[in-house]
Write a structure and sequence with these properties.
2 copies of one chain form a homodimer. Chain A has 2 domains: 8-52, Arc Repressor Mutant, subunit A; 64-205, Orthogonal Bundle (Tetracycline Repressor, domain 2). Chain A is 73% helix and 0% strand. Chain A has helices at 8-27, 34-41, 45-51, 55-65, 71-78, 87-102, 105-116, 122-149, 158-179, 187-205. In chain A, helix 6 packs parallel to helix 9 (158-179) and helix 9 packs antiparallel against helix 10 (187-205). The first copy, chain A, is elongated. The model of chain A has no long low-confidence stretch (mean pLDDT 92). The interface between A and B is large, with 43 and 43 residues. Chain A binds a DNA duplex (30 and 30 nucleotides) through residues 1-2, 7-9, 12, 33-35, 43-47, 49-50, 54-55.
Chain lengths: 206, 206
Amino acid sequence: METNEQGRSARKRQAIMEAATGVFMEKGYSGTSMDDIAKLAAVSKQTVYKHFSDKEKLFSEIVLATTDRLDGMIGLVADVPSDADTLDENLTRLARQFLTALTQPQVLQLRRLVIANADIFPELGAAWYEQGFERVLATLAATFQRLAEDGLLRIDEPLLAAHHFSGLLMWIPVNQAMFHGGPQHTQADLDHYATAGVRTFLAAYR
Amino acid sequence: METNEQGRSARKRQAIMEAATGVFMEKGYSGTSMDDIAKLAAVSKQTVYKHFSDKEKLFSEIVLATTDRLDGMIGLVADVPSDADTLDENLTRLARQFLTALTQPQVLQLRRLVIANADIFPELGAAWYEQGFERVLATLAATFQRLAEDGLLRIDEPLLAAHHFSGLLMWIPVNQAMFHGGPQHTQADLDHYATAGVRTFLAAYR
DNA sequence: TGACAGTACTGGACAGTCCAGTTCATTCAC
DNA sequence: GTGAATGAACTGGACTGTCCAGTACTGTCA
């Protein structure tokens, strides 16, 4: 009789990854001990080592696992309609969604975590950047390219425009979050950043 | 008899700070041992502890000491002439100087160092952000305000404009540097970021 | 005489291993 | 179906080796 769709081993592995994600996020890589993780996962240390050969491997896996969750964001970016009349509000909505998604405490925390350990795990930092950040940016660039071909925007270098778009939006809140503990921005702040950023972007690129 | 202008004690202290700065930058906070620092400073461990009560205090001091070096940057930002004919090239020069200064390996490394340890030293992160980053931004905002009053720019919120300016310039190279090891940008890249960023900025704010 | 070098030491944390005994899911005989 | 048999996965805790912050002590030099 199979009451569990996953089986014991897979369930344990899942528990370990969730626990590890939580503890690494909260206490950083070197601040986290394997005992902490085992304890929080309600699992013996040996089981942790059965699933993940060492601490570095476990860390890599939990970090890269988070890039899977970006697909929704990709969809949003690709779905901006080619409609001149609503371009402003469509981009503003996109901007708000961008800001909301990227100022989630977990996302910022993960970003800090990756940056903090880019010395020790350079490949991990690069991989996360490519699979996460650049994937979204490339999609945004493609969207801008399409909008330009439809005559809604005037753009020479789509990728540069995409970087400008995100830089205008996120420079402020991301920087603040990197140096301070938690997020200091209210929803009103974010809305303001969104409208102001889109205004500046469209003034330059329409 | 005092043959040295500083005194032996002050010289030792200086040596310790320089050594600590180097090692912390290279190996991070937790990767650095007090023995490393003492050895590099050619000083006994006991002397290190005579000058700095513990590791945390030493770290804080060397990080905050770096914010003193921003005065040159402040001067540059404040000195943009109110001349409509050369506004474009003046801002582009400023942008280039900005980018060159902030993509220095030491600066990026320090930034990483502060972000990486913002969990453990939240006050330090906040202090560095305020005394370093926000000071430059505020000066830039004041300059924009002046340029707006002289009719060269059209600006509602000078501080927001300053953030947009720096976001347009630095989002790309700073992000790359945070996640990859060293700087991947050539001087040509930086020039391109500068001219493109200023072009976008002026299209929106002139 | 006081600041320093050099070095040994303490106390605690932690990665990773080992092992003896236990749980659990599957298989196969009845 | 029921119930043993089997082997893999798991527990819990002890153990090793290492690293490091901070202290103590002895000798040296100015």
